[in-house]
């Protein structure tokens, strides 16, 4: 009876053809493994790093009501993002933004500018941040703050941080912010104080 045991001391010979096939197999296997890792890495990176799905240069959007122009929104760069789960989206304006509000006669009522901003599509909420300036074009009244919110649904503008308002009567401060209609015709400072001008003098 012949033994099925192979002599371990006997050398194993591979032909040139077999060697070539082995090298090709190893190369293809390595390439597949590498590509699989790259795809998985990119997928993981996309999920972890919130990357924009759309980037627009010199972005402009107009909002009308009953055929009348109400708001123009402008930004040098606009990036649109989708939140995880794909249920909501928002825009970021990392190079600044400008919002122009129009009155019933379609003349400019007020203008808001900032160095940074966002717009939450589902909430219809705009957020201006960093050196925010809002000006009533008709009266010359100016507001300065570091964060400002615009609710498009009820057409209000408000802030929860320190706010300064300058007009012909003096300089006024809202230690805890303010609330106003979007044209700055009616506003209320929260935690207010200020300096009132009387002729050429100032009374604190």
What do you see in this structure?
Helix content is 16%, strand content 50%. It has 204 residues and is an alpha+beta fold. The chain folds into two domains: 15-49; 54-203, lipopolysaccharide transport protein A fold (Sandwich), CATH 2.60.450.10. It has a six-stranded antiparallel beta barrel. The protein is globular and about 50 Å long. Mean pLDDT is 78; it is low at 1-12, 24-39 and 41-48.
Outline the secondary-structure elements:
Blueprint: H1 16-48, E1 54-65, E2 68-82, E3 89-93, E4 97-102, E5 108-114, E6 116-120, E7 125-136, E8 142-151, E9 156-159, E10 163-167, E11 170-174, E12 178-181, E13 187-189, E14 192-198, E15 201-203
Antiparallel strand pairs: 1-2, 2-3, 2-4, 3-6, 4-5, 5-7, 6-7, 7-8, 8-9, 8-10, 9-12, 10-11, 11-14, 12-13, 14-15
